[in-house]
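Hi R.,

Here's the chain you asked about this morning:
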Amino acid sequence: MKHTRQAGWILLMIGLILPFAALAQDQTAVVATTAADFSSGAHAVVSVDPVGGPRTVQSNLSPTISDVGVDAYGSHFYRMERYGANNVTKFSIDAPSTIIWQYSTEGDDSNSNPYDMVFVSETKAYLLRYGTDTAWIVNPSAATEAEFKTGELDLSAYADADGIPEMHSGIIVDGRLYIVFQRLDENDLWAPKNTTLVGVFDTVDDTEITQITVPVENPIAIQYLAETDTIYVAGVGDFGYNYFGGIAAVDVSDESYPVTEIIDGETYGGIVGMIIVSAAKGYFIGYGTWQNNTLYSFNPSAQTPAPTIVSGFESMSIAGMQSGVYLDQNNMLWLCNQTDGQVDILNTSTDTVDESVDTELNPQAVVFVGGSQGTTSGGDDGSSSSGCFLNTCR
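And the predicted structure, written out as C-alpha coordinates:
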Protein backbone atom coordinates (compact mmCIF):
# COMPACT_ATOMS: atom_id res chain seq x y z
CA MET A 1 0.00 0.00 0.00
CA LYS A 2 2.86 2.36 0.83
CA HIS A 3 4.51 1.82 -2.56
CA THR A 4 1.17 2.25 -4.31
CA ARG A 5 0.60 5.55 -2.52
CA GLN A 6 4.11 6.74 -3.40
CA ALA A 7 3.57 5.76 -7.02
CA GLY A 8 0.31 7.67 -6.99
CA TRP A 9 2.04 10.80 -5.68
CA ILE A 10 4.77 10.44 -8.30
CA LEU A 11 2.21 10.16 -11.08
CA LEU A 12 0.35 13.16 -9.67
CA MET A 13 3.52 15.25 -9.57
CA ILE A 14 4.42 14.22 -13.11
CA GLY A 15 0.92 15.19 -14.19
CA LEU A 16 1.34 18.60 -12.58
CA ILE A 17 4.86 19.23 -13.84
CA LEU A 18 4.50 18.11 -17.45
CA PRO A 19 1.93 20.76 -18.47
CA PHE A 20 4.17 23.51 -17.06
CA ALA A 21 7.21 22.05 -18.77
CA ALA A 22 5.33 21.91 -22.05
CA LEU A 23 4.10 25.46 -21.54
CA ALA A 24 7.64 26.72 -20.93
CA GLN A 25 8.72 25.25 -24.28
CA ASP A 26 5.79 26.59 -26.27
CA GLN A 27 5.95 30.37 -26.38
CA THR A 28 4.92 32.47 -29.34
CA ALA A 29 5.62 36.12 -30.10
CA VAL A 30 2.86 38.28 -31.53
CA VAL A 31 4.15 41.29 -33.44
CA ALA A 32 2.06 44.30 -34.44
CA THR A 33 3.24 45.41 -37.88
CA THR A 34 2.73 48.38 -40.16
CA ALA A 35 3.59 49.21 -43.77
CA ALA A 36 6.60 51.46 -44.32
CA ASP A 37 4.32 54.12 -45.85
CA PHE A 38 1.75 53.68 -43.04
CA SER A 39 -0.92 52.69 -45.55
CA SER A 40 -1.85 49.47 -43.75
CA GLY A 41 -1.07 47.21 -40.81
CA ALA A 42 -1.43 43.62 -39.64
CA HIS A 43 0.17 41.24 -37.16
CA ALA A 44 2.67 38.42 -37.33
CA VAL A 45 3.28 35.40 -35.09
CA VAL A 46 6.79 34.05 -34.53
CA SER A 47 7.94 30.99 -32.60
CA VAL A 48 10.25 31.88 -29.70
CA ASP A 49 12.28 28.69 -30.08
CA PRO A 50 14.62 27.25 -31.12
CA VAL A 51 17.42 29.44 -29.79
CA GLY A 52 19.73 30.04 -32.72
CA GLY A 53 16.84 29.58 -35.15
CA PRO A 54 15.35 29.03 -37.52
CA ARG A 55 12.18 30.34 -35.92
CA THR A 56 8.90 30.00 -37.80
CA VAL A 57 6.89 33.05 -38.81
CA GLN A 58 3.43 33.83 -40.19
CA SER A 59 3.18 37.39 -41.49
CA ASN A 60 0.57 39.89 -42.67
CA LEU A 61 -2.29 38.28 -40.74
CA SER A 62 -5.70 40.00 -40.69
CA PRO A 63 -4.66 43.17 -42.58
CA THR A 64 -6.03 46.41 -41.16
CA ILE A 65 -5.06 50.06 -40.58
CA SER A 66 -1.49 51.03 -39.70
CA ASP A 67 -2.15 52.43 -36.21
CA VAL A 68 -2.31 49.18 -34.23
CA GLY A 69 -1.16 47.91 -30.85
CA VAL A 70 -1.22 44.48 -29.27
CA ASP A 71 -1.63 42.95 -25.80
CA ALA A 72 -1.95 39.36 -24.62
CA TYR A 73 -3.24 37.23 -21.76
CA GLY A 74 -3.33 33.46 -21.37
CA SER A 75 -3.70 31.83 -24.77
CA HIS A 76 -5.23 34.91 -26.41
CA PHE A 77 -3.99 38.19 -27.81
CA TYR A 78 -5.83 41.43 -28.36
CA ARG A 79 -5.18 43.80 -31.25
CA MET A 80 -6.17 47.43 -30.80
CA GLU A 81 -7.03 49.47 -33.86
CA ARG A 82 -6.37 52.94 -32.57
CA TYR A 83 -6.95 56.41 -33.98
CA GLY A 84 -9.96 56.55 -36.28
CA ALA A 85 -10.95 52.88 -35.89
CA ASN A 86 -11.31 52.60 -32.09
CA ASN A 87 -11.85 48.91 -31.44
CA VAL A 88 -10.29 45.82 -29.87
CA THR A 89 -10.14 42.43 -31.60
CA LYS A 90 -9.55 39.14 -29.77
CA PHE A 91 -7.62 36.23 -31.31
CA SER A 92 -6.47 32.81 -30.09
CA ILE A 93 -2.82 31.93 -30.62
CA ASP A 94 -4.06 28.59 -32.00
CA ALA A 95 -5.85 30.41 -34.85
CA PRO A 96 -4.02 33.75 -35.07
CA SER A 97 -5.91 35.11 -38.07
CA THR A 98 -9.41 34.12 -36.94
CA ILE A 99 -11.38 36.85 -35.15
CA ILE A 100 -13.10 35.67 -31.95
CA TRP A 101 -14.74 39.04 -31.37
CA GLN A 102 -14.26 42.70 -32.25
CA TYR A 103 -15.74 45.31 -29.89
CA SER A 104 -15.90 49.09 -30.16
CA THR A 105 -14.12 51.24 -27.56
CA GLU A 106 -16.15 54.35 -28.40
CA GLY A 107 -19.00 54.73 -25.94
CA ASP A 108 -20.02 58.40 -25.98
CA ASP A 109 -16.59 59.48 -27.22
CA SER A 110 -15.81 60.44 -30.80
CA ASN A 111 -12.22 59.10 -30.82
CA SER A 112 -11.34 56.90 -27.85
CA ASN A 113 -7.99 55.77 -29.32
CA PRO A 114 -7.39 52.55 -27.25
CA TYR A 115 -3.73 52.29 -26.22
CA ASP A 116 -3.29 49.50 -23.70
CA MET A 117 -5.12 46.65 -21.94
CA VAL A 118 -3.90 45.85 -18.43
CA PHE A 119 -5.13 42.46 -17.25
CA VAL A 120 -6.27 41.41 -13.79
CA SER A 121 -7.67 38.08 -14.99
CA GLU A 122 -9.44 36.39 -17.89
CA THR A 123 -12.59 38.30 -16.94
CA LYS A 124 -11.23 41.69 -15.85
CA ALA A 125 -8.92 44.18 -17.55
CA TYR A 126 -8.44 47.92 -17.74
CA LEU A 127 -8.69 49.44 -21.22
CA LEU A 128 -6.71 52.68 -21.42
CA ARG A 129 -8.35 55.04 -23.90
CA TYR A 130 -5.81 57.69 -24.87
CA GLY A 131 -8.28 60.13 -26.42
CA THR A 132 -10.62 60.34 -23.42
CA ASP A 133 -10.61 61.00 -19.68
CA THR A 134 -12.08 57.60 -18.72
CA ALA A 135 -10.53 54.15 -18.73
CA TRP A 136 -12.91 51.26 -19.19
CA ILE A 137 -13.10 48.24 -16.94
CA VAL A 138 -13.81 45.37 -19.33
CA ASN A 139 -14.46 41.63 -19.44
CA PRO A 140 -12.12 40.11 -22.07
CA SER A 141 -14.18 36.90 -21.99
CA ALA A 142 -17.46 38.67 -22.79
CA ALA A 143 -19.56 36.79 -25.31
CA THR A 144 -21.30 39.96 -26.55
CA GLU A 145 -20.32 43.58 -26.98
CA ALA A 146 -22.99 44.61 -24.47
CA GLU A 147 -21.20 42.56 -21.81
CA PHE A 148 -17.72 43.88 -22.65
CA LYS A 149 -17.68 47.12 -20.64
CA THR A 150 -18.38 46.50 -16.94
CA GLY A 151 -17.33 49.84 -15.43
CA GLU A 152 -14.96 52.75 -15.78
CA LEU A 153 -12.31 54.84 -14.02
CA ASP A 154 -12.89 58.58 -14.03
CA LEU A 155 -9.42 59.99 -14.76
CA SER A 156 -10.43 63.59 -15.40
CA ALA A 157 -8.42 64.68 -12.34
CA TYR A 158 -5.25 63.85 -14.31
CA ALA A 159 -6.18 66.01 -17.30
CA ASP A 160 -4.39 69.22 -18.19
CA ALA A 161 -5.87 72.33 -19.81
CA ASP A 162 -7.07 70.47 -22.90
CA GLY A 163 -9.27 68.20 -20.75
CA ILE A 164 -7.51 64.92 -21.68
CA PRO A 165 -4.83 63.22 -19.52
CA GLU A 166 -3.40 61.08 -22.38
CA MET A 167 -3.31 57.76 -20.49
CA HIS A 168 -0.57 55.76 -22.18
CA SER A 169 0.21 52.45 -20.48
CA GLY A 170 -0.09 50.60 -17.20
CA ILE A 171 0.99 47.70 -15.04
CA ILE A 172 -0.37 45.85 -12.00
CA VAL A 173 1.81 45.08 -8.96
CA ASP A 174 0.50 43.52 -5.73
CA GLY A 175 -3.12 44.30 -6.59
CA ARG A 176 -2.39 47.90 -7.52
CA LEU A 177 -2.83 49.35 -10.98
CA TYR A 178 -0.25 51.95 -12.03
CA ILE A 179 -1.24 54.14 -14.99
CA VAL A 180 1.17 56.58 -16.58
CA PHE A 181 -0.22 59.80 -18.05
CA GLN A 182 1.54 61.91 -20.69
CA ARG A 183 -0.52 65.07 -20.02
CA LEU A 184 0.34 66.73 -23.33
CA ASP A 185 -1.10 70.10 -24.33
CA GLU A 186 -3.23 69.51 -27.40
CA ASN A 187 -3.65 73.28 -27.77
CA ASP A 188 0.11 73.82 -28.10
CA LEU A 189 1.24 71.18 -30.62
CA TRP A 190 1.01 68.43 -27.98
CA ALA A 191 3.88 69.89 -25.97
CA PRO A 192 4.74 68.04 -22.70
CA LYS A 193 4.44 71.14 -20.50
CA ASN A 194 2.70 69.50 -17.56
CA THR A 195 3.91 67.50 -14.57
CA THR A 196 3.99 63.78 -15.37
CA LEU A 197 1.77 61.74 -13.06
CA VAL A 198 1.39 58.05 -12.32
CA GLY A 199 -2.00 57.13 -10.87
CA VAL A 200 -2.27 54.25 -8.40
CA PHE A 201 -5.56 52.33 -8.09
CA ASP A 202 -6.85 49.39 -6.07
CA THR A 203 -7.78 46.58 -8.46
CA VAL A 204 -10.34 45.14 -6.02
CA ASP A 205 -12.63 48.14 -5.64
CA ASP A 206 -11.18 50.32 -8.45
CA THR A 207 -10.59 53.30 -6.15
CA GLU A 208 -7.67 55.70 -6.39
CA ILE A 209 -4.92 55.20 -3.80
CA THR A 210 -2.54 58.04 -4.66
CA GLN A 211 -0.77 60.01 -7.37
CA ILE A 212 2.99 59.86 -7.97
CA THR A 213 4.89 62.75 -9.57
CA VAL A 214 7.62 61.52 -11.93
CA PRO A 215 10.47 63.79 -13.20
CA VAL A 216 10.37 62.65 -16.84
CA GLU A 217 8.29 64.29 -19.53
CA ASN A 218 6.05 62.62 -22.10
CA PRO A 219 6.32 59.08 -20.64
CA ILE A 220 6.20 56.22 -23.13
CA ALA A 221 6.98 53.11 -21.04
CA ILE A 222 6.33 51.72 -17.57
CA GLN A 223 7.80 48.46 -16.26
CA TYR A 224 8.11 46.59 -12.97
CA LEU A 225 11.14 44.56 -11.87
CA ALA A 226 10.58 42.25 -8.89
CA GLU A 227 14.32 41.92 -8.24
CA THR A 228 14.45 45.56 -7.13
CA ASP A 229 10.74 45.98 -6.25
CA THR A 230 10.83 49.02 -8.48
CA ILE A 231 8.74 50.51 -11.25
CA TYR A 232 10.68 52.23 -14.02
CA VAL A 233 9.17 55.01 -16.15
CA ALA A 234 10.78 56.26 -19.37
CA GLY A 235 9.92 59.50 -21.14
CA VAL A 236 10.84 61.03 -24.49
CA GLY A 237 10.18 64.68 -23.63
CA ASP A 238 9.69 66.80 -26.73
CA PHE A 239 11.91 64.70 -29.02
CA GLY A 240 15.07 66.69 -28.34
CA TYR A 241 13.57 70.18 -28.40
CA ASN A 242 12.48 72.23 -25.39
CA TYR A 243 11.50 69.41 -23.06
CA PHE A 244 13.59 66.37 -22.30
CA GLY A 245 12.67 62.97 -20.99
CA GLY A 246 14.66 60.37 -19.11
CA ILE A 247 14.21 57.30 -16.94
CA ALA A 248 12.95 57.41 -13.35
CA ALA A 249 12.74 54.66 -10.73
CA VAL A 250 9.82 54.42 -8.27
CA ASP A 251 10.34 52.31 -5.13
CA VAL A 252 7.02 50.50 -4.63
CA SER A 253 8.14 48.82 -1.39
CA ASP A 254 7.73 52.18 0.34
CA GLU A 255 4.19 53.56 0.69
CA SER A 256 5.56 57.06 0.11
CA TYR A 257 6.80 55.96 -3.34
CA PRO A 258 10.22 57.67 -3.40
CA VAL A 259 11.30 58.57 -6.94
CA THR A 260 14.83 58.77 -8.37
CA GLU A 261 15.82 59.97 -11.81
CA ILE A 262 18.46 57.53 -13.09
CA ILE A 263 18.91 58.67 -16.71
CA ASP A 264 18.76 62.28 -17.87
CA GLY A 265 17.33 62.05 -21.34
CA GLU A 266 18.76 65.36 -22.58
CA THR A 267 22.04 63.73 -23.56
CA TYR A 268 20.19 61.20 -25.72
CA GLY A 269 17.53 63.46 -27.24
CA GLY A 270 14.82 61.78 -25.16
CA ILE A 271 14.08 58.13 -24.43
CA VAL A 272 11.72 56.44 -26.93
CA GLY A 273 11.91 52.90 -25.54
CA MET A 274 13.08 51.04 -22.43
CA ILE A 275 13.42 47.53 -21.03
CA ILE A 276 14.99 46.60 -17.69
CA VAL A 277 16.45 43.08 -17.78
CA SER A 278 17.83 42.90 -14.23
CA ALA A 279 19.05 45.08 -11.37
CA ALA A 280 22.35 45.42 -13.21
CA LYS A 281 21.26 45.64 -16.85
CA GLY A 282 18.78 47.56 -18.90
CA TYR A 283 18.38 49.00 -22.38
CA PHE A 284 16.89 52.18 -23.78
CA ILE A 285 16.45 53.74 -27.20
CA GLY A 286 17.82 57.26 -27.53
CA TYR A 287 16.14 59.58 -30.01
CA GLY A 288 18.28 61.31 -32.65
CA THR A 289 15.89 62.42 -35.36
CA TRP A 290 12.90 60.82 -37.08
CA GLN A 291 13.77 57.14 -37.75
CA ASN A 292 17.29 57.76 -36.45
CA ASN A 293 17.63 56.13 -33.05
CA THR A 294 20.33 54.30 -31.10
CA LEU A 295 20.15 51.40 -28.63
CA TYR A 296 22.07 51.77 -25.36
CA SER A 297 22.72 49.36 -22.50
CA PHE A 298 23.19 50.59 -18.94
CA ASN A 299 23.22 49.59 -15.27
CA PRO A 300 19.97 50.88 -13.70
CA SER A 301 21.34 50.37 -10.17
CA ALA A 302 24.54 52.36 -10.68
CA GLN A 303 24.75 55.68 -8.87
CA THR A 304 25.94 57.28 -12.11
CA PRO A 305 24.95 54.96 -14.97
CA ALA A 306 27.25 55.14 -17.98
CA PRO A 307 25.18 54.00 -20.99
CA THR A 308 27.06 52.37 -23.85
CA ILE A 309 25.94 51.94 -27.46
CA VAL A 310 24.99 48.39 -28.43
CA SER A 311 27.07 47.54 -31.50
CA GLY A 312 25.09 47.29 -34.70
CA PHE A 313 22.15 49.37 -33.42
CA GLU A 314 23.26 52.92 -34.15
CA SER A 315 21.47 55.59 -36.19
CA MET A 316 18.60 53.37 -37.33
CA SER A 317 14.84 53.16 -36.95
CA ILE A 318 14.04 51.11 -33.82
CA ALA A 319 10.42 50.97 -32.70
CA GLY A 320 8.74 49.35 -29.72
CA MET A 321 10.07 48.86 -26.19
CA GLN A 322 7.05 50.83 -25.03
CA SER A 323 3.75 49.03 -24.39
CA GLY A 324 4.71 45.38 -24.77
CA VAL A 325 7.03 42.84 -23.18
CA TYR A 326 10.03 42.29 -25.50
CA LEU A 327 11.88 39.75 -23.29
CA ASP A 328 11.08 36.13 -24.12
CA GLN A 329 11.40 33.04 -21.90
CA ASN A 330 15.03 32.69 -23.01
CA ASN A 331 15.72 36.21 -21.74
CA MET A 332 16.28 37.47 -25.26
CA LEU A 333 15.28 40.98 -26.28
CA TRP A 334 13.07 41.35 -29.36
CA LEU A 335 13.91 44.58 -31.16
CA CYS A 336 11.63 46.12 -33.79
CA ASN A 337 14.12 46.99 -36.53
CA GLN A 338 12.15 49.13 -38.96
CA THR A 339 15.21 50.03 -41.02
CA ASP A 340 15.40 46.44 -42.27
CA GLY A 341 11.76 45.37 -41.74
CA GLN A 342 12.63 42.63 -39.26
CA VAL A 343 12.71 41.64 -35.60
CA ASP A 344 16.26 41.34 -34.29
CA ILE A 345 16.42 38.91 -31.36
CA LEU A 346 19.22 40.04 -29.07
CA ASN A 347 21.02 37.75 -26.62
CA THR A 348 21.10 39.94 -23.50
CA SER A 349 24.11 38.08 -22.08
CA THR A 350 26.35 38.88 -25.05
CA ASP A 351 24.54 41.75 -26.82
CA THR A 352 24.77 39.78 -30.05
CA VAL A 353 21.92 38.99 -32.46
CA ASP A 354 20.67 35.41 -32.10
CA GLU A 355 18.49 35.62 -35.21
CA SER A 356 16.75 38.21 -37.37
CA VAL A 357 13.19 37.40 -38.48
CA ASP A 358 11.53 39.04 -41.49
CA THR A 359 7.99 40.15 -40.56
CA GLU A 360 7.08 41.40 -44.07
CA LEU A 361 5.68 44.68 -42.73
CA ASN A 362 7.64 46.80 -40.25
CA PRO A 363 7.45 45.50 -36.66
CA GLN A 364 6.29 48.04 -34.08
CA ALA A 365 5.31 46.17 -30.90
CA VAL A 366 5.84 42.69 -29.41
CA VAL A 367 4.04 40.57 -26.80
CA PHE A 368 4.31 36.89 -25.92
CA VAL A 369 1.68 34.19 -25.52
CA GLY A 370 2.39 31.10 -23.41
CA GLY A 371 5.66 29.99 -21.89
CA SER A 372 7.41 31.81 -19.08
CA GLN A 373 8.72 35.33 -19.47
CA GLY A 374 12.23 36.50 -18.93
CA THR A 375 13.02 38.68 -15.94
CA THR A 376 10.58 41.44 -16.69
CA SER A 377 7.00 42.39 -17.32
CA GLY A 378 6.00 45.55 -19.10
CA GLY A 379 2.56 46.04 -20.24
CA ASP A 380 1.44 43.28 -21.82
CA ASP A 381 2.11 38.52 -21.48
CA GLY A 382 2.91 35.02 -20.40
CA SER A 383 4.16 34.19 -16.94
CA SER A 384 7.41 35.65 -15.69
CA SER A 385 10.27 34.50 -13.54
CA SER A 386 10.04 37.88 -11.86
CA GLY A 387 6.68 36.86 -10.42
CA CYS A 388 4.72 38.61 -13.15
CA PHE A 389 1.92 37.30 -15.33
CA LEU A 390 1.48 39.58 -18.30
CA ASN A 391 1.41 43.07 -16.86
CA THR A 392 0.24 41.68 -13.49
CA CYS A 393 2.98 41.12 -10.92
CA ARG A 394 2.91 38.99 -7.77
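Helices lie at 2-25.

Let me know if you need anything else.
M.
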